[in-house]
Amino acid sequence: MAATILICDDHETLRDLARAALEGNDYTIVEARDGDESLELARKVRPDLVVLDLVMPGRSGHEVLFELRRDPLLSETPVIVCTATRRTMNERLAIELGADRYLEKPFSPGRLAETVTELLGRRT
Amino acid sequence: MRRPRGHLGRLTAALVLISLVPLGLLTYLTLRLAESAVHGEVERKLTSTATMSALLVEKEMTSLADLVGAYAGRPALVEALEDAEDDPEAVTLHLRDLRGIHHGIFTTFLAEPDGTLVDISPSTPEIVGKDFSFRDWYKGVTTSGRPYISEVYRTQARGEALVVAAAAPIRGPSGRFLGILVAAYDLDHLRTVSAGLEEAQDVKLRIVDQSGILVTSGADASIGLESARNDPRVRAALAGRSGLTQLDTDDGRRLSAYAPVRTIGWAVTASVPADTAFAAIAGLRSTVVAISAALGLVLALALVFLARNLYARRRAEQEAQRLADVNRAVLDATVDGISMVDTEGNTLLRNTALEMILSQIPGLPEGGTMFERAAAIGELTTDPAGFREFMASLAERPESDGEYELELREPKLSFKLFSAPVEGDGERLGRIITVRDVTGEHEADRLKSEIVATVSHELRTPLASIVGFSELLLTRELDSETRGRYVQTIYKEASRLTLLINDFLDLQKIESGNFTLSLEPFELGDILAHQVGLFSGQSLAHELELESSNEPVVVLGERDRIEQVLGNLLSNAIKYSPAGGRVRVTAELRDDAVRVSVRDSGLGIPAAQQAQIFTKFFRVDSSDTRKIGGTGLGLALCREIVEAHGGRIGFESSEGEGSTFWFELPVGPRVHDQRPRALIVEDDPAAASLLAEHLKDLGFASSTVATGEAALELAFEHAPALVCLDMALAGELDGWEVLARLKENPVTVNVPIVICTGRNGRERAAALGATAFLTKPFSAARLREAVKRVLPAGGRSVLVVDDEENVRRLVVETLGGNGLELREAADGAEALEAVALRRPDAIVLDLIMPGVDGFVVLERLQADEETRSIPVVVLTGRNLSPAERARLRTGGVSLLEKSAYSTGELRRLILQAVGADGDAVEFLRV
């Protein structure tokens, strides 16, 4: 069964990029445009992996991450934080909140694909 | 500091005067008292000397007279006299006896009742028998019948000495007058007495007999029979008066007392030299004066010293007060809060800044020691334990410095505390505590990192797309459609990034003040149409409308910047409007500005966030707007640009209904202010408005008044360039009166006046100084002729060459109203044609034109004898190289750069070029 990946980013181009990066694999891609939608979709589709932007309208990525980790059904779902904000503080916070990987924008699509593969592989 | 000194000086002088006056008075009174006492004493002494001397003389002389009288009454003498013929020796014996009784008696003698000398002792036979009835003693005795003291006379006996005689009648038992017994008294005796007195009393004594002859004068034995009657003292004393007088004599001023010698009718004067008599006074006076002077000096010195002391003290006090004030002012001017506490922690001093800081913190106890207050403050901080620790360290180690940074929870304020011990004279006085509000710095730091984060985020987002899609293009096998899509995305994001960077840098540039606009006049309508067209093409989902007035609006500004502003506003309007929304752009002229509005039917801005809309990096935050990207720089940039143009920017918005953003740019005044003003004095509104129309065509701005009074008021306040005057007016004054008054006033005497009237009176008008006379109705052409004639540059023509119509219009408007004929050419070829057709008096030339450009025109003009001397003003927007500048200048060309020129300067240059630079009066007389 194809893995479901939730891409959360408020920039359409960046969602496109993530989707393009993961193209060629047998993934089902679901996109969310802000924090609220991210949480809503995550609970609905129970993705196998979440690619999460930190700076989004509404609930921020940090909040989404916090909520995901509180949800028993989603607490183990791998999360790749992918953000354009400055690294230092945010990375630590994201890792503390339970992010599995931290990618800084601009990120390499190849690296994203590898990370996704790695995390999905670890899971199974 | 000068004031108190002068004041004090005057005060001191007044005090010295006030204290010296009584001192002087005292001195004077003392002197007067002493003088009168001395006078009294001297006079009393002198008077008593005179009186005493008179009494002595009286006693001496009367006792002599009594002696002689008693002797004369002796029966033995009578007997001897009666028996004289028998015994002459008996008489002689009596005489000798009498002489022996009184040692002052010089001679004694006996005379017959008829004055014949009978006998004399000591014996002097040669004068016996002589008649002496001429003597005063004879007369005295025979007249009074009593003993008598005679005047002084020179005796014929014994060496002709000066004597006085004491004479007494001798009577028989029946009272028969038998003869006269005389004792001549030697004056030496009296002189001795007098000299004794003189010596005892230290005076000069003079004794005068009843006829005023000097008897004695002190011890002077050399006196003869001198009369002293001329002496007033003597006269007074002889008259029986006694008294005191001061007289100027040959021996100087003398104080004299005189007294009569009563029984014998003599007089005595006693005198002393005044200066000797009053020598005591002089001595006393100099002593008193010396003491007073010394006293006064001491007093004055004491006062001056006191005043100086007082002044010095006041100076010191003032200085101390000033220093205290300065210190207080310094303390209060210090931004940091400063407090000083004693060793117990009691507040000694607080500056204003500290009061301000404390007033921001609610719930602080008013009094108490530093430690008590600190405990209360500690509870309000984010780290009460840390603060307690810090305060404890201060209390434990009073000699040490301390520094602490605290943050209050509510209100959110941050402070830095510094504490240092204060010592004076080796003794610990307490502590200085400085409180610095670092909330602002913290806020600034926070804002700065926020901005950096935002910028970083905003830049990284498009960068992520560019880098990511580039990598995909490089690493993956993609079909051409996908490749194309990726490339397009990269391009789009790169463009967005560029825009972002540009916006950011622009804003930086403006904010750092390193920003200049290159202004040029341009037609606003053009850029409105251009931008609306551009955005219509980009966003097919929105409907864009442009509505602008028919009248072309020329603004002075930097075209690209204004386009940037409009572009930003349009972009926002589209961004925040739902698809299918309508965006409407309008331009409307207001008083001296044009307002461009961009109205959308979008989300609108929540009221609470409206205040921050132009703040950098601020973005309206709502669930709808979060979906819309942006830097938060656009509006901030717009505001900076519009304000740099001297304009305003603003908006009206209500949430959910849409927003209208607008900006205003100044127009008009820059152009219209240059027009000369014509004053129309006309009570018929129709005629006035027609006249105004004509004058407008001639380049005038005109104001109309209906009465002569209003006309004069306006004209005197600011002389117009031209007056058009009707003769029949609404007010009290008629046109003639107005004309006369205008020509009387120095403000308006040179203003050309065109009479516009339905009446006659051309000669009278000319005589009163009117420049032209037009009879109604008159044609526009006639008015034009008349007006041109009166204007400085009348009849001169100027050719304006520019490919931009707006610039030409601006130049024409600038030069209008000077009577110049203005022709226009849109390029070099047209310009050369126009010059060939009729030689202009001056040319305004653009350099960059399509086809034949300005440089070529200049060359051609130079080549031709006819046109070489035409003055040219080059008006260019181009940045010229130094070589080009030099070339233009050698051609006798004035250079104005469009970006920097002022219409006033252009006007001046052109009027100068055509030889009418303002000397209007001279010109008119020709």
User: Count the strands of chain B?
Assistant: 32
Chain-averaged pLDDT of chain A: 87
* Order of neighbouring strands in the sheet with most strands of chain A: 2-1-3-4-5
Largest interface (CB < 8 Å)? A-B, 25 and 30 residues
Q: Determine the fraction of residues in helical runs of chain B and give it as a percent range.
A: 40-55%
- If you average the pLDDT of chain B, what whole number results? 81
Percent in strands of chain B: 15-25%
Describe the structure.
The complex is a heterodimer of chains A (124) and B (926). Chain A has 124 residues and is α/β, with parallel strands linked by helices. Chain A is built from five helices and five strands. In chain A, strands 2-1-3-4-5 form a five-stranded parallel β-sheet, with helices on both faces. In chain A, α1 crosses α5 (109-123). The model of chain A has no long low-confidence stretch (mean pLDDT 87). With 926 residues, chain B is of the alpha/beta class. Chain B is built from 29 helices and 32 strands. In chain B, the strands form seven sheets. Chain B has a five-stranded antiparallel β-sheet, with helices on both faces. A five-stranded antiparallel β-sheet of chain B has the order 7-6-10-9-8. In chain B, α21 (762-768) links the parallel β26 and β27 (772-775). In chain B, α1 (2-72) packs antiparallel against α8, α10 (370-380) runs antiparallel to α11 (384-396) and α12 packs antiparallel against α13. The longest helix of chain B has 71 residues, at 2-72. Chain B is elongated, with a radius of gyration of 67 Å. The interface between A and B is medium-sized, with 25 and 30 residues.
